Amino acid sequence: MLTVHREQLTVRHASDRPLDLGLTLGPLRHGAGDPTFRTTPDGAVWRTSLLRTGPVTQRFTVADERTVVVQHWGPGAAEAAAQLPTLLGEDDDTSGFVPPLQAADAHRRTPGLRMPRSERVMEALVPAVLEQKVQVVTAHRAWRWLLARHGTPAPGPAPSGMRVVPDARTWAAVPVWDWHRAGVDATRARTIVRCARVAARLEEAAAMPPAEGRARLETVPGIGVWTSAEVAQRALGDADAVSVGDFHLAGAVGWALTGERTDDAGMLRLLAPYAPHRHRVVRLLFLGGRARAPRRGPKLPIPDYRAF
To answer: What is its EC number (predicted)?
Structure first.
């Protein structure tokens, strides 16, 4: 149901099955200080996005276990409202899914878990590239700095400091010294610029089957299977995209399912019976606290590329 006010569009979205707003939208957040995502003390979730029709700010509040009320501000409000069911995982089909025993309790306790589908490829791709081969705290710091510098203010009454991601032309024009100030090395910076220059082609991946969409992304030098999986999980709603190549993931999944660490090949063998829900299984293992393999060796130092 839509209610249009002078500067605001309100949607009451009622689902026919449980919807956990936090678990569903949570993967779209890149760190506690993400300027595009905020949870306020009243329990509302605020999110910004840049759509074809322009920027939008959304405020999500829970009415009951199957209903959320979403307010929209900005030129992209109508488009965002139309895409709301997709964003909230209404197309996420769990029929026939039987989790492994180790994830069964988490699956039972989280009936409202959905795979979100933002359909915004560059919004998922840039932070994924920033997270390539660095500690996540470094990537999140870079994301905040770049949006503060090159993003635009969130429309409407958004909480202070919220920003909208830059458009592709702006990403392509970020000067070398700003990548340096953000702590982003030249390899990742070049990858983001390459993606921005072909952004229109990459955004088409949102309308493709996930395997085809990922193949489209991987045509760009610097985008491999890990990065395409991270994008597919968020922008394409792919419940089967496994982040192969993650420094910790294979060991954690192996530990959760067998009590032993494993490598990427071993992880894929263990997850194979659960296709096309392999990413869903991984999420459930982490939600259930199973994927916590004992750490080995000293922590790696955090490199500061701003000093190079």
So the answer is: 3.2.2.21
pTM of the model as a whole: 0.92
Strand partners of residue 3? 10
> Helix crossing, 225-235 with 121-130: angle to 10°?
140
Max CA-CA distance within the chain?
Answer: 58
What per-residue confidence (pLDDT) applies to 299? 53
Render the burial of 181-216: b for 16+ CB within 10 Å, e for the rest. Answer: ebbbbeebbbbbbebbeebeebbebbeeebeebbeb
Domains and CATH numbers, the chain: 2-94 (3.30.310.20), 121-235 (1.10.340.30)
Q: Mean pLDDT, the chain, as a whole number? A: 94
Give residues with Cβ within 8 angstroms of 272, minimum separation 6.
278
Q: What is the pLDDT of residue 247?
A: 87
pLDDT band at 304 (very low <50, low <70, confident <90, very high): low
